[in-house]
Amino acid sequence: MTADKPDLGTLEERAGVEIAAAGDLHELTAVRARYLGKKGSVAALLRSIGELEPSERGRVGQEANAAKQRIEAAAAARKGDLERAGREQVLASQRLDVSLRGTATRTGHLHPITHVTRDMVQFFTSLGFSIEEGPEIETEYNNFEALNIPADHPARDEQDTFYLDDGRLLRTHTSNVQIRVMAGRKPPFRFIAPGRVYRHDLSPRHSPMFHQIEGFLVDERVTFGDLKGVLYGFGRHLMGRDIELRFRSNHFPFTEPSAEMDYACVLCDKQGCAACSQHGWMEWGGCGMIHPKVLERCEIDPDRYQGFAFGMGIDRTAMLRYGIPQLRHLFEGDVRVLEQI
Ligand code: PHE
């Protein structure tokens, strides 16, 4: 480098040649640094002005600065050219055919059971019920014993229980949650417990695994009328209109009095069809006033507190709501069927 005896004209000329020769942005940056950087030729030249005759300094300084600006302008222009050339090359080499069909992504949706469960939860949380969960593997005590179903009780057979080797079982209903919630706590209680339950049963309206939702409320001065009010409100919320319910007297060891509730079949409007086995009504679940013995077992005074409980099939509710004729459609996981719901 001729930093000691800089010849401005030569410097500028050389810079111009090198800038024009820079084949890409990377090279151009290197050229800029060589001439215009802090340690570059132009800076060296400006520094050496101090060695000139004082009368010369002003003129040489002005010329040097003007040359610097021209080099800068040349570099900037080259940069613009290189960038434009780069873009043009990309455009020339890549073809974007906007008329090509896109690849459609299939979006999934929530399972009908999940939809219905969420809707149920929403209704009851708006009434101040909490949401509780119990385990699917349960003790005999919580699933039967504490619910006033002793070992020799026929209700045990009715529920076709799956037993595990260690004596525990797959819960046959969500009523086990009643015992778990009450244990060691005092009323008032107000909760729902949705979840999976298991029974040894398979038919168009039964599956070995199905979903129930338990509703439970204990307080002072609770009546069967309160229970009915909640259930009618629940039905209206789920179906978006009033639904017809029927209460048939029934027996559950853990409620007294007890009732079986049916809803009017929506598929045939009570005329009788395959879905409701020609009955015109579909079983929805069981309900009743909590048996005093159950409260006593959980150390709650039945003279002071009463309550109601109900347990219904979530799957049945989904069938009702979406008009699904067969329970298995919900569980076979056939997307073609589920997509129609
Ligand atoms: N657990 C009962 C069943 O599964 C339903 C039920 C719940 C009945 C609560 C009364 C009260 O059949």
Description:
With 341 residues, the protein is of the alpha+beta class. It has two domains: 8-93; 112-338, BirA Bifunctional Protein, domain 2, CATH 3.30.930. The protein is 42% helix and 18% strand. The strands form two sheets. Strands 1-4-5-9-8-7-6 form a seven-stranded mixed β-sheet, with helices on both faces. The chain has a two-stranded antiparallel sheet with strand order 2-3. Strand 6 (245-252) and strand 7 (255-264) form a beta hairpin. Helix 1 (8-21) packs parallel to helix 4 and helix 5 packs across helix 11. The longest helix has 40 residues, at 54-93. The radius of gyration is 41 Å and the shape is elongated. It binds phenylalanine.
Q: Any idea of the CATH topology of the largest domain?
A: BirA Bifunctional Protein, domain 2
- For the report, how would you describe the main beta sheet? 7 strands, mixed
Mind telling me the C-alpha Rg?
41 Å
Beta fraction: 15-25%
| Low-pLDDT sequence parts | none
- The structure class reads alpha+beta
User: In order across it, which strands form the biggest sheet?
Assistant: 1-4-5-9-8-7-6
Question: Architecture of the largest domain, CATH level 2?
Answer: 2-Layer Sandwich
Give every kind of bound small molecule, once each: phenylalanine
What's the helix-strand series?
A: HHHHHEEHHEHEEHEEEHEHHH
Quaternary structure state of the chains depicted: single chain
The general outline is: elongated
CATH superfamily of the largest domain: Bira Bifunctional Protein, Domain 2
Mean pLDDT: 90
Number of strands: 9
